[in-house]
Structures are given as C-alpha cells and as structure tokens.
Specification:
Blueprint (H helix, E strand, L loop, with lengths): L7 H7 L3 E5 L2 E5 L2 H7 L2 H58 L7 H9 L16
Antiparallel strand pairs: 1-2
C-alpha cells in the first residue's frame, strides 16, 4: 500500500519503505532509519522539537489530571465536613437537653449523702453538698 503522510510518528511505526519527492526528483530509502540518517540537520532539529513539545504536552496533561483529582478529593472532603458539621449540630441540642435536667431535690441529695454516695453522680447540675 502507498501512504502519503507528514506524520513522522505514523511513518516511523508503519512504513517499510520511504520514497521522497524532492525538487521533481525521487529519493528511495529502504527503511525509515535510512531515511532519517540521510535527513538534513534542520529536519532532525524539527523532529526533536516536535518530540519535546509532545513530551511537554503529555506532562501538562498528567499534571492537569492530578490537579483535577486533588480538587475532586478536596471537594469530597469538604462535603464530608459539611455532613459531619450538620450531624454535630443535630447532636448539640441533644446534649444541651441532657444538661437541662431538673435539679435534684434536697431530699434526694440528703439521702445520697447519708448512703455515702457523692451527689455529683447526679450530673453537673447537682447542688453542692452542704
């Protein structure tokens, strides 16, 4: 099959023979390696510049992908914090209610003291022992 292409990477991979038309004449090369060996220096410089650009482009794509993943992880973490924050807010009223128990009567406190127990066991709102 005859393929006409300017894509050096495609030609390097698939061409078994290279025929070049230059100034109305034909140059025939048995392989891609033979063709590149006979290429002028500016062509080799252009090839190296193109390869360098492709490497930089690939590096930029990898960095972009990593940054995107980091943003996604951060966003998921923030969502988790928001969920946790709302759960804490749900929990706080329960804790506040727990501490709003009515104070024990003097009779209960006296009974605990007479039994040798500490009235502080009733919680933070227990009156101090007399």
């Amino acid at each position: 099959a005859v393929v006409v292409s300017h894509d050096r990477f495609f030609l390097r991979e698939f061409a078994t023979r290279v025929v070049e038309i230059v100034d109305g004449g034909i140059r025939d090369y048995a392989s891609w390696d033979e063709y590149t060996a006979a290429a002028p220096p500016q062509w080799l410089e252009a090839t190296q510049a193109e390869e360098s650009f492709i490497r930089q482009d690939a590096t930029a794509a990898v960095m972009w992908r990593r940054k995107k993943m980091a943003r996604l992880k951060k966003r998921q973490g923030n969502i988790g914090l928001r969920r946790l924050s709302s759960r804490v807010e749900e929990f706080i009223p329960e804790e506040e209610e727990r501490f709003k128990r009515p104070l024990p009567s003097e009779k209960v406190v006296s009974r605990l003291i007479s039994e040798g127990l500490d009235p502080a066991l009733l919680g933070p709102h227990a009156p101090p022992a007399a």
